[in-house]
Write a structure and sequence with these properties.
molybdenum cofactor biosynthesis, MoaB/Mog-like_dom_sf, 26% helix, MoaB/Mog_dom, EC 2.10.1.1, 6-stranded mixed beta sheet, single chain, molybdenum
């Protein structure tokens, strides 16, 4: 059965902007502005000619069999851009440190890749303003996603085949205002010091199961636990152990347990006694609402973050600690505002089989 085109070949009474219509015989040597689909009943359905194909004399009869007596040809005015040229301009305006453009554009689309392992940061306001322009788009992974080198972190596209230059420029300006709408920050390798609190653990009445959990999570980011101690429910004792860890070179302190309202839970008091200059207790996340983050001045003016994990960190595979740790290691300052912002998406669904981070938690 002869091929039939999806649409007829009659000239349109209202030519589309950026296109010119020519009889197929006069279109030899010109470039197709769109794909042409062919259907042969029971045999084939698909693309007969790809957008961008240069028409040859040998194509004329095939095109006519598809009902294409007239052909749309691309015609770009001085105030317009081809989709691929627009995609390049858009992509370059979006990428910041740690993000690179993959290859050449295809049909107005380019992928944006992580140039190295790290934490993806998206300027959500700038991305919104970029997409608000219309006729162009950029879709990304969630901000604060841990990514690996070569991973696709975003895709940008010029939607129509021909885009007005002023549209592209408005979108470019929105992205450039952010000095890189997409960035991937390096995650430093922590030298963590850990204090496991609880008199019942310190005296050996129960076995500590917290340290292996913390070690695994630190090792995920190529860090190490340089020292760990068990401590009773005694603030002065905890402080002593923490100071020893700082002297040993710890640049991150982690304390487990002792964060409820029980009179024996003294972790918060120990952090204050240690000399923390900033303390934030409570996070809008479940599990992990009793989480505490604090900061203190270390040697040579370096700031040492202190992360205090409530008991849920031992029983739940993923908690607020998993959301905060990579951000701290990537240089984020987690304060009251950041802990409050986590409430949107901060409810774990307690799935029978955990697929984190491929899930809504923390997004």
């Amino acid at each position: 059965m002869p091929g039939v085109a999806l649409s007829g070949g009659l000239p349109t009474p209202h030519p589309r902007k950026g296109f010119k219509t020519l009889p197929v015989e006069d279109a030899v040597g010109r470039m197709l502005a769109h794909d042409i689909t062919e259907i042969r009943q029971g045999e084939f359905k698909g693309r007969a000619f790809k957008k961008g194909h240069v028409i040859t004399v040998g194509d004329i009869e095939h095109l006519k069999r598809l009902g294409k007596n007239n052909i749309y040809l691309l015609e770009i005015d001085d105030d317009s851009m081809h989709e691929n040229d627009a995609a390049f301009a858009l992509a370059h305006s979006l990428v910041g440190s740690g993000v690179e453009i993959e290859g050449q554009p295809s049909e107005g689309k380019l992928n944006l890749l992580a140039a190295h392992n790290g934490l993806l940061k998206i300027d959500k306001d700038a991305l919104y303003r970029f997409n608000l322009v219309g006729e162009v788009m950029c879709a990304t992974l969630h901000t604060n996603t841990v990514v690996t080198r070569g991973q696709t972190v975003g895709g940008v596209r010029a939607i129509p085949l021909v885009v007005k230059k002023d549209v592209v420029q408005r979108a470019v300006s929105a992205a450039k205002d952010a000095n890189g709408c997409l960035q991937v920050r390096e995650i430093r390798k922590a030298r963590a010091g850990v204090v496991i609190t609880g008199s019942e653990v310190y005296t050996g009445k129960i076995e500590d199961k917290f340290l292996p959990v913390v070690q695994t999570k630190i090792a995920r980011f190529e860090g190490e636990v340089i020292g760990s101690h068990l401590a009773p429910d005694d603030a002065a004792f905890i402080v002593q152990r923490l100071r020893g860890l700082i002297e040993a070179g710890a640049d991150l302190l982690i304390i487990t347990g002792g964060l409820s309202v029980d009179p024996d839970d003294v972790t918060r008091f120990a952090v204050k006694m240690l000399g923390a200059t900033e303390i934030h207790y409570g996070a809008a996340v479940l599990p992990g609402s009793m989480f505490l983050v604090a900061y203190m001045e270390g040697t040579a003016g370096a700031t040492i973050p202190i992360l205090c994990i409530p008991a849920c960190g031992m029983y739940h595979g993923i908690t607020v600690f998993d959301l905060v740790l990579p951000r701290i290691l990537a240089g984020d300052h987690i304060g009251r505002g950041e802990l409050a912002e986590m409430g949107h998406g901060g409810l774990c669904m307690q799935c029978k089989e955990c697929h984190y981070p491929i899930c809504p938690f923390g997004k």
